[in-house]
Amino acid sequence: MNRVLVWYGELTTAGALSRRGLLFLLPAALWLMAFLVLPSLALVAVAFAERGTYGEVVWTFSLENLRRLLGYGLFGWSPDNLLILGRSVWVAFVTSLVAALLAYPLAFFIASRPPRTRYLWLTLVIIPFWTNLVIRTYAWQLLLSPDLPFARVAAALGLAEPGAALYPGSFAVYVGMVSAFLPFMVLPLYSSVERIDSSLIEAARDLYASRARVFFQAILPQTLPGLTVGVILTFIPAMGMFVIPDLLGGAKYLLVGNLIQQQFGASRDWPFAAAISLGLMALTLVALRVYRRSGKDVDLV
Predict the structure, then answer these.
(1) Where would you find the membrane-spanning parts of this chain (predicted)?
(2) Which residue in 2, 16, 127, 233 has its CB near the most CB atoms, within 10 A?
């Protein structure tokens, strides 16, 4: 017999509460099942299938696509796919690092503003989200064109050829990536900076700590939860980004997102594209695991 409980003024039982909780969880569970679990299982199945003569999926299972991902093909071993994967990890790492370096002073600046104007500054940070990413990337093509100041200054400093645009290339890719993901780093950092205990910073300064020691021993530990969330929100999507590298990097800077897009699109090789996607997911999980182990005491809540 279920024991009678009083739950927020209502007389009920433990079994009824459990059934009610399951009912509340059911929509979210169905959503995750339909749009995460089932597609992931389908991706795994397709990754071990084969491509037919006309691009169809042939349900003959093998490890050939994983071998191709590792570089083994008809003409022997090639490091191209592994280099693309490594380059994607590097671009995501640099994007997260530069975004963090820019986000810290911006978050402190916003937190130091009067309460009435903070929301205005936060709105300015998220305004880029009001515009489609493709349009923002095309805007960077215009800003990096040879007739505008960025290219002229670079040519005057000898960093670029006169009359040449600053894209396509790695520099343009990094600029586009950092500008696209900077708000994802600023917002969680701001939430941590806003709750920082300034007395710890004052105590460190009273003890004649250098600026570096004040940051690493008084500021960084307090803002580490926000930094962790920001790195996750930046690193994961940056790993699979293909719009920015495609428009600002062209054929000179191919990342794993572009490779997946080519295989799903022009090449019509869905099994190999699924295998690359599994490799990208594995790299992301490994990177998160390494980052989590380095800061395992951080509370993300």
Answers:
(1) 21-49, 89-112, 119-139, 171-193, 214-244, 272-291
(2) 233
